[in-house]
Amino acid sequence: MSKGFPRNFLWGGATAANQVEGAYLSGGKGLSTADVMTTGVHGVPREVTNGVIEGTYYPSHNAIDHYHRFQEDIALFAEMGFKCYRLSINWSRIFPNGDEELPNEEGLKFYDEVFDTCQQYGIEPLVTISHFETPLGLLKYGSWENRKVVDFYVRYCQTLFNRYKGKVKYWLTFNEINVMSTKPWMAGAIKSNDEQVRMTAAYHQFLASAKAVHLAHEMDPDNQVGMMYAGHVAYPNSPDPEDMQTVNDFMHKMLFYCDVQCRGYYPAYKLKEFERKGIVLPIQDGDLEELLEGKVDFLSFSYYATHVVGKETNLNFEGLNGVKTGYKNPHLPTTEWGWTIDPMGLRYALNLLYDRYQIPLMIVENGLGAVDKVEDGSIHDPYRIEYLREHISEIKKAIEIDGVPVMGYTMWGPIDLIAASTGEMKKRYGFIYVDIDDEGKGTFKRIKKDSFYWYKKVIETNGENLE
Ligand code: BG6
Q1: Angle formed by the axes of helices 148-163 and 195-219, to 10°?
Q2: Is the CB of 427 under 6 A from ligand 1?
Q3: Who contacts 237 (Cβ-Cβ below 8 Å, separation ≥6)?
Q4: Relative to the CA of 448, which of 7, 156, 197, 241 has its CA 20 to 30 Å away?
Q5: Dihedral of CA 439/444/447/448: which sign?
Q6: Measured in angstroms, how far is the CA atom of residue 242 from the centroid of ligand 1?
Q7: How many CA atoms lie within 13 A of 149 on its CB side?
Q8: Which pairs from 432-436 meet CB under 8 Å and 24+ separation?
Q9: Which one is catalytic: 21, 124, 145, 365?
Q10: Mean pLDDT across the chain, nearest whole number?
Q11: Which atom of ligand 1 is nearest to the CA of 132?
Q12: Are strands 442-448 and 432-436 parallel, antiparallel or unpaired?
């Protein structure tokens, strides 16, 4: 029996362009959905403004200035021994308004340099093509509600596959695609609460993803394209069968995104639900074949927390990704932001997803958002080490005991970055501290935390030494 993590396991970290790059108008970049989101610090929720309002602070505008410091940052990742760096390409750097005929050369050049730097250190890039950063220029079409956006996305993909052939072989079509059900602005510039609108937008994203998978394979047989699921998992509030039924309903709501992308068709339970609700999918000739042909090669997911659901759900407890369940789990501690800490749930999630789809899995986000203190220039973060150690141990069990094929683990976010849900900086995930505050003020200096040295050892020993 083989033990431990596979030899070619992709250890690394994950970021998203809008949360690290900054330089929001440099090099010909256009505005994206992230660039009009304010910060939610001091108890004020994150707002979406109508364009950029002068005098308002938008965290994505400078973020952690990775755009100008990516060489230093990637060198630090390399020092930890990263085998893989998951990053996203900011669509509006390549097509500033999303609908141009020709791409923006300066934007393409920037990512050439990023990938060349990765290559220099033997780091495999894993690229998210769209991570909560839709060009604002697509709003005039109604964004993903309009089928035209499928073509714009495919043109964007074609540009990337062509330009980065030989440099990038792992791709993810949409970050946390199921967020279309909970936070549609982030998922694809959709403001409406109307389910018909969201399901139309999701349909177009499925189609766009399927076309992208097809194209990627055609343009380079080495390409491997994955889907990315916001890894929601739910437990019943009690052994009451009615509570268990709510788990089933909850999981269907989330997993149908994986069903479509991994199996290539809509599951019966979803079609029945659409029928009951009068939701109509804008299916055209050839689409269903396209979905079937565009099944993904692997399933990647983020894993932060689990939920509890039950028949008495009163929807007053808002958890991860804006999911409202009504219950807290009395068996689990939570982070300072109220997300449950549930390492065993990760093994459960890996089993659930593999049992259902039988394709390779990858954990492309997992981490602890916490407030760090700088003491005499150092950051001691045993809480982060403990969180990651426990989660990685459970992945190991899933591989060794359950036989789940896990391709890799890219922890979120290896360097402190802007929080997506709140826009805060003080919710820090990194092995590397970045000296800026919630208003974006500071020196931007990078400092290695204790966890930096711990993760280096984990990678060096291929996950054998987690102490
Ligand atoms: C995931 C997103 O939902 O969770 C990331 O893909 C995000 O973009 C991460 O940063 C953690 O959430 P937050 O709100 O703590 O940044």
Answers
A1: 30
A2: yes
A3: 243, 246, 308, 309, 310, 311, 312, 327
A4: 7
A5: positive
A6: 32
A7: 27
A8: 432/73, 432/76, 433/372, 433/374, 433/379, 434/64, 435/374, 436/64
A9: 365
A10: 95
A11: 8
A12: antiparallel
Q: Whose CA is closest to atom 15 on ligand 1? A: 419
Mutate to test the pocket of ligand 1, among 88, 412, 438 (most ligand atoms within 8 A of CB): 412
Tens of pLDDT, residues 197-233: 999 999 999 999 999 999 999 999 999 999 999 999 9
pLDDT (tens digit per residue) in 329-376: 999 999 998 899 999 999 999 999 999 999 999 999 999 999 999 999
Contact present, 186 and 420 (Cβ < 8 Å): yes
Cβ atoms of 103 and 95 within 8 Å: the answer is yes
Q: Are strands 170-172 and 84-88 parallel, antiparallel or unpaired?
A: unpaired
Active-site option among 21, 124, 145, 176: 176
Identity (one letter) of the amino acid at 317? F
- The amino acid occupying position 297 is D
pLDDT in tens, 62-107: 999 999 999 999 999 999 999 999 999 999 999 999 999 999 999 9
Residue 405, token pair as written in the block: 């094929």
- Is residue 20 packed enough to be buried (19+ CB in 10 Å), middle (13-18) or exposed (0-12)? buried
CA of 368 to the centre of ligand 1 (A): 10
- The pTM of the full predicted model, rounded to 2 decimals, is 0.97
Q: Is 176 a catalytic residue?
A: yes
pLDDT of residue 311: 86
The distance between the two most distant Cα atoms of the chain, rounded to a whole number of Å, is 65
Active site residue 54: no
Residues forming a β-bridge with 88: 128
Regarding the beta carbon of 175 and ligand 1, being less than 6 Å apart is answered yes
Closest atom, ligand 1, to C-alpha of 176:
6
- Two tokens at 56? 């308002």
Q: Judging by DSSP bridges, how do beta strands 224-230 and 170-172 pair with one another?
A: parallel
Within 278-381, where are the H helices? 287-293, 343-357
Residue 320 pLDDT > 90: no
Q: Which of 62, 31, 63 minimizes the C-alpha distance to 48?
A: 31
Phi, psi of 54 (to 5 degrees): -60, 140
- For 42, the token pair is 């001091």
